[in-house]
Amino acid sequence: MPGPRRDRPAVLLLLGALLAADLYFHLWPRARREMGRVSPGCPCPAPPAPRPPLPRAAPALRRLFAHPLYRAAPPGPAEPLLGAREALRYYRRKAARWNRRHKLYREELNLTSPAAPLPLRPEASWLQFHLGISRDGLYPRSSPAVTRLLRDMREFPTVSADYSQDEKALLGACDCSQIVKPSGVHLKLVLRFQDFGKAMFKPMRQKREEETPEDFFYFVDFQRHNAEIAAFHLDRILDFRRVPPTVGRLINVTKDILEVTKNEVLQSVFFVSPASNVCFFAKCPYMCKTEYAVCGNPHLLEGSLSAFLPSLNLAPRLSIPNPWIRSYSFDGKEEWEVNPLYCNTVREIYPYSNSNRLLNIVDMAIFDFLIGNMDRHHYEMFTKFGDDGFLLHLDNARGFGRHSHDEISILAPLSQCCIIKRTTLLRLRLLAEPEYRLSDVMRESLLQDPLAPVLTEPHLLALDRRLQLILDAVSKCIDTFGEATVVANDTAQPQSPAAHRAKVGT
Asked: Among residues 239, 375, 440, 449, which one is catalytic?
């Protein structure tokens, strides 16, 4: 029978030591923590109490629109542009006529699948936008219809596409001896959506970071889709509300244009590029070349969509030459460019002599200077509102071309006439304040667009610089002629709080 092993006590001692170490270093501290008995020298402090969340500043855009200057009531009753009953009757007739033509078109192509008629809904956002136009502007300051319209234009499927009326006028009548480039460079299309609304589509022709070359004349410059979008946001921030609602969208040029257009000319200018991208261009005897085309990637193409205004049959408009029109030739100048007293002549001409038309021209010049638009050769206005109606700020695609250059000549109506609306000046001074800085509110507003960022940072900062140049020009006028002569009391606006420092005092 074998005797006891001599190494058994050593093994037992080792196991006992391991058990003791486990008790001392693991089980005993855990038991002490559970019993709440913490030794006096424990370096572990109690967890800090959670801090209350810091109050977040309201977005700059919301604070701006909550300012008293943006909440004042219009001086008179909101006279509507359209009568609701008449507009509904007119658009129902147009919808019925379009559906008949669409049915005949499908029958000619032997398309047997039935096509549901395009409905006209009275609650459609585009129709509510039309009914909301008044003497005060194209839309109220708080307009749910405009918010819905922007959403619908970027989401609704298209049901037809066609050239615009001015594009059609160029077909077969394209005189390239004129300096103004025909439609090949400035292609735009009319898109109709499933709710019977229409929008002007302008495709991307230039990347955001590209500046207009210094050697380009303003009348041969590209038209930029992002300039149309940014102009709408700036116009709303300035509280003019004279630019139709505009939004960016990625258009499928095959599905949203080629497959829905009935225009054979438009169908014929589509082609596939060597890079397998779908492209199209404007049809004109002198410009029907592929180098003027716009191309998808391979089908998707950025563009701006601007809501159509009411039909001219419902709301006639006048197109009037701008008194400060530029010379559209390589040499020669207009009178205002060489005569610093030109405004005295304008003041003697009706209707600039006895209405606020001149003040509206100055507003338009301020707007154009901020966006850098030198191409305001005409302006339009609704005839219903007479001589004192607001001017429409249409066709802004040649803005935001050069952020590094400020074209002071655009401000000629202001600097030569030395007159400005009090409300316009108050808002400009407010937007120069750090709390409401123009570049900040524009940056925030443009983030709402699907194609954001719409403008590059240098273009946003250029707005602040140009705003200060406008205020300097006004200050120079006030120093020369006095505030009572320069600042026109267009409305009885309430005084803004002293904290906002937006008073007209010098």
From this structure: 375
